[in-house]
């Protein structure tokens, strides 16, 4: 797999700004290719093009390359292996990611690749952080949510039996029990 950059590299031989392959301009590449010595010059590697794929600002470094459906940047490694750009950024600028760990955004911005905004954590820590910041779906926003905040308040204040409340809102009695005990609030 060969990489292309948005901003050209200078030729490693003559310094010409318009390179075509192996960090060489067309003239130098053709001259070396005729002698079969072009293979001695390195091809572009992921590190050469990574910094060309994001825009640095004072805060987040916004990924300008490909994104997945959740907004995270995608970076292709040789062999067409896609990795999330923030994971590559952490490994590129900070170091290897420990086995079984994930990279969390402290800025809560999926396309950000700023290593100062990334930290190692577990899935449980990431879920707890999401819950603490109220980024999970609650109530009617949840795929299985059936109750509005007003209905939950009515259930908590009601003096009827849990079975009666469950029939009124078309939910299970155990769900009414969890709401009254403060465990669930969907």
Structural key phrases:
186 residues, alpha+beta, two-stranded antiparallel ribbon, 7 helices, 13% strand, rod-shaped
Helix content: 25-40%
* Strands side by side in the biggest sheet: 1-2
**How much of the residues is beta strand, in percent?**
5-15%
Weakly predicted, low-confidence segments: none
Overall form: rod-shaped
Rg of Cα set: 27 Å
The largest β sheet comes out as: 2 strands, antiparallel
Describe the secondary structure blueprint for this structure.
Elements: E1 19-21, E2 24-25, H1 26-34, H2 46-50, E3 54-55, E4 62-63, E5 74-77, E6 81-84, H3 85-93, E7 102-105, E8 118-121, H4 123-132, H5 149-157, H6 162-169, H7 173-180
Antiparallel strand pairs: 1-2, 3-4, 5-6, 7-8
Helix pairs in contact: 6-7
Could you describe the 3D structure shown?
The protein is rod-shaped. The protein has a two-stranded antiparallel sheet with strand order 1-2. The chain has a two-stranded antiparallel sheet with strand order 3-4. The protein is 31% helix and 13% strand. Strand 1 and strand 2 (24-25) form a beta hairpin. The longest helix has 10 residues, at 123-132. The protein has helices spanning 26-34, 46-50, 85-93, 123-132, 149-157, 162-169, 173-180; strands at residues 19-21, 24-25, 54-55, 62-63, 74-77, 81-84, 102-105, 118-121. The mean pLDDT is 85. It contains 7 helices and 8 strands. The protein has 186 residues and is of the alpha+beta class.
